[in-house]
Design brief:
With 129 residues, the protein is of the alpha+beta class. The chain has one domain. Helix content is 28%, strand content 34%. The chain has four helices and seven strands, in the order βαβαβαβββαβ. Strands 3-2-4-5-6-1-7 form a seven-stranded antiparallel sheet. α1 crosses α3. The longest helix is centred in the middle third of the chain and has 10 residues. It is globular and about 35 Å long. It starts with a strand and ends in a 5-residue tail after the last strand.
């Protein structure tokens, strides 16, 4: 699966974006997918709900993920798998990596949208582990 790393930083050094910005860059597509979240560590008003969803392995619709992402200050770690149907291979994989970068794995159109929205985008190798 082809992917990119996003490294955009704010002037003070932390990442200048979060999950909500990645979802927005992808347009309407994330709202059409069913999302599985795992290994999520985050802070913000919606953190408790997102932690419960990730810990339970429950799928959520794209509107729910977008709502939660808007209520999170920062995702520190986590994997987000967007699928057209539960159990199908993911169409989009979004990974938060230790507050240092984000990875997005998807088709060429989605990756082009990421490149248009973010300034510091680099190739990423998919690691299934």
């Amino acid at each position: 699966m082809t992917g990119v790393e996003i490294h955009d930083r704010a002037p003070a050094g932390p990442l200048a974006f979060d999950l909500r910005d990645i979802l927005a860059a992808l347009g309407a597509r994330p709202r059409t997918l069913s999302w599985t979240c795992s290994g999520v560590e985050c802070v913000g008003d919606g953190a408790g709900e997102l932690h419960r969803i990730a810990d339970s392995g429950t799928d959520v619709d794209g509107a729910t993920l977008a709502r939660l992402a808007a209520s999170i200050s920062q995702v520190i770690d986590g994997d987000f798998f967007g699928r057209r149907e539960p159990g199908a291979p993911p169409d989009i994989i979004i990974k938060a990596v230790d507050s240092s970068l984000w990875e997005v794995f998807a088709d060429a159109d989605a990756l082009a949208a990421i490149r248009r929205r973010f300034a510091d985008v680099r190739p990423a190798a998919y690691d299934a582990g």
